[in-house]
Amino acid sequence: MSDDLSPLDLALLAESVELECKAAQGRDGRGELPEDFWKSYSAMANGEGGVILLGVQEKPRGTFKAIGMAEPDRVCKALWDNANNRKQISTNLLVEHSVERLSVAENRWVLRITVPRAGRHQKPVYVGSNPLGGTYLRRYEGDYQADEETVRRMLAEQVEDSRDERVLRHFGLDDLDRETVAAYRNRFAAVKPGHVWADLPVPEFLERIGAYGKNREEGFSGLRIAGLLMFGRAEVIRDVLPHYMVDYQERPEAKTENRWVDRLVPDGSWSGNLYDFFRRVYQKLTVDLKVPFQLKEGQRVDDSPVHEALREALANTLIHADFSGRVSVMVVKRPDMFGFRNPGRMRIPPEIAIHGGNSDCRNRRLQTMFQLVGYGDHAGSGLPKIYTNWAGQHWRKPVLYELPEPEQTRMELRMSSLVPDEAVVMLDQHLGARFRALPESARLALITAHVEGMVSHDRLKQICTDHPADLTKMLGALVRDGLFHSNGSGRGTIYYLPWQSPISLGFDLAAGQVQTLDSPTVSPELAGLPPELAGLPPELAGAPSSPAAPAPAIYLDWDAVPEALQTELMTLGQPVSQTKRVLPDVLAQVVLALCDGRYLGARVLAHILHRDPDDLRKRTLSQMVKEGHLKTAYPATNAPRQAYTAIKSGSRATAGVDTDAPLRA
């Protein structure tokens, strides 16, 4: 940033990093380190890192004003004193160049503090002396206290280099599926003919490959977690990992909806372990791939770069999964793409992993067992191989991203060219000469939005060579010219075509839902199951073949609401919007009418009712959820992109605002 801290400079920064602005004026208006600074520091360090600007006011949201501080020296001193005080913050990640002083006016200064992403050995970064109460996470644009389960998972990641290493007491060979073990041994013998381990008895073989081991400190032997995951029966695996779930779905159309023509889940008809899941799913993924004729040493090779990329993606999904998390492992096959999801975020930043050479595998024993039979690569070369092989087909660059709540990593491999003819024709029909006159990067942005349902600044950085600042200016111009609609703000902004509803890059959303990347949609451990199966045990939930009913639409931004529905909602909201003061019961009844049959976010409701969104959420929506009149879209009540729908009970959620009985006493 330059010394002249303009609104454009701030907007560009907000597009590229997590940004928190604090006025930091203090009681005397000359500058003071805000009390909540360390909460933002903790949240950014536990996430992707970010920038905190002291002396910048954000009011209204998305509008920045550099007001500066008169005495930045005392703010800097307080910052460094507290950064090195373990009673204040658990870890100091800052170095000298992390704090910059920027002049914004005569004798007025802004402090820019760049907070790096903490490594897993440093997490959780927490305020005070108790990680269970002082750990914060960044959710959308706020800092939220982490729940106890999340903190304990961070602590486990910190101390356990390999999460599948532990030897389990009272778990032995009887808990394994013998057919899976036999299939693995056959594959091992074929890949490594004549290997000395091939003819060992089963117990010794399992010990050699790392599935069985001994706890030398306590003096007992048993299965390792890796061995149970790889070869165990699903019901036994859940004795150790209650949320364990693997799920494959083949979907008939290129749509983000939970309808399938083929599905594989642990339903009792097969073992449900990882090795069987890998074998069965890989066969389903590749069954209809075309294989060019080629010979190697006189033998036909039934393989291709696409086969290799899918093997790597599937193996990576399993060996990097955090099986203690609440999200299922999911693999999706669609006519236009392959999707892979695993619980847990990556241990190294995605942008570093993509370039290769760095690897921090979460389940190293599993990684070794897959490598012994020819699946998966060493030294972080798997992801680069996927990207290289996909580029060799002239297909769109793979999408790799993380979601923070619940924590998960997703990869999408799309089988469409970077500039599909169909997309160009469609955009030319809608926009005509306006489309043809745009520069190449702008056309590519519109094409990506058409093909993928939306586009973001981060996605464009993956497929364009333009400078990030130029991409921000270009996206802003497309919005101003009416060629894009936008949803969200700062780094979380997504852009979509005016005639389309915005959808997530994700592959497990129901049709009609309007989402952003930081918004999971379904119950994590049973993601993808239709509502009538959500209450069944996972092993019984895979049998039905009937498609799921479409879920109610979710609208988080007023611009995403269809025009006809906007008119209907504004009419329903008139009893409140046209009056400054209304009784709580009247407000609650209007909210119920608005949320009948759909999910509406607080900002949409506030727009309709002419109310402050934060006040509406705190005083009305949260109370109605507690009383059982509203249902939230996501289990976490403080989810930053929360939405609400009416719970129908008798005549409670009606099309009007009259009711037989008041909602509150």
DSSP, total strands: 25
**Biggest sheet, strands in spatial order?**
12-11-15-16-18-17
Largest sheet: 6 strands, mixed
Q: What count of domains describes the coordinates?
A: 4
Give the overall average pLDDT.
82
> How many whole angstroms does the radius of gyration measure?
27 Å
Helix content: 25-40%
Strand content: 15-25%
Given this structure, which CATH class of the largest domain is correct?
Alpha Beta
State the CATH architecture of the largest domain.
2-Layer Sandwich
| Low-pLDDT regions | 508-549, 650-665
Helix segment tally:
24
Decide which structural class fits the backbone.
alpha+beta
Distance between the termini: 56 Å
Protein name: AAA family ATPase
Pfam families: SLFN_AlbA_2
Organism: Lampropedia puyangensis
Domain Schlafen AlbA-2: 15-144
Give a written overview of the molecule.
The chain is of the alpha+beta class. The protein has four domains: 7-158, Schlafen, AAA domain (Methyltransferase, Cobalt-precorrin-4 Transmethylase, Domain 2), CATH 3.30.950; 243-414, Heat Shock Protein 90, CATH 3.30.565.60; 421-520, Winged helix-like DNA-binding domain superfamily/Winged helix DNA-binding domain (Arc Repressor Mutant, subunit A); 554-646, Arc Repressor Mutant, subunit A. The strands form eight sheets. Strands 12-11-15-16-18-17 form a six-stranded mixed β-sheet, covered by helices on one side. Strands 1-2-6-5 form a four-stranded mixed β-sheet. A four-stranded mixed β-sheet has the order 22-23-25-24. Mean pLDDT is 82; it is low at 508-549 and 650-665. The relative contact order is 0.07. A hairpin with a 2-residue loop joins strand 17 and strand 18.
